[in-house]
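Many introductory courses stop at the sequence. We go one step further.
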Amino acid sequence: MGGTYNLSNFQNRDSDHPTRRKLTPVEGQENVYDVSREEGTVRVEGTPWNYDTMNKFDKKIGDMFPVKIENGGTGGTNKNSAVNNLMTTGTFTPNLYSSANPTRPLNYSNAGDKYGVYYKLGRFVYVNIRIHNCKVSESDPDGYLVIGELPFANAVGNFTTLTVGEFALYSPDLERDRAVSCSIMNGGRMIRLSKGDGGTQISVNDATNHACDAIISGVYITNA
């Protein structure tokens, strides 16, 4: 290969309340708030999931498996570089949907920041999703919150649970932290969110007019 591969040693963030946030009113702007961390004691900062981390990770993989310039690589040569043809990477924009109508995203009063990245090696897909300050403006008494669409459909014949799932709702008079179970729906591209207190799903009405934050990542298998 291209050299010795050193593991990245990614670390989870460890704090008393990892998804807790504080809302601070913005002076002179009605119903506008700044969101800041309010986690209590932080024991481990954790690996920051941002462009810098992902670009360094992307480059490290590229250094091991050189890619032709016309394919976006550095032009390095290696007799085993064909292995890189098995790996693809890209970005996508996640959205909040209702399970009762998963064909279109829910309407937002504040679109917030939404970012998704994937790495695909053969049939294995790693995804990382970040949603911040996304405020749903419509209600749906029959639907539950789902997040999608993933870049590739889940191939496993049951729900595939992802390793990291955090979801929180905030409003001026209410703040709720939720560690959630996130699982990809059978044969689909949608992630189901289930509460940590018994596995019940989060209704769309529960999120209406509240700012939503989500951190989700994990590996699943696709047929693509």
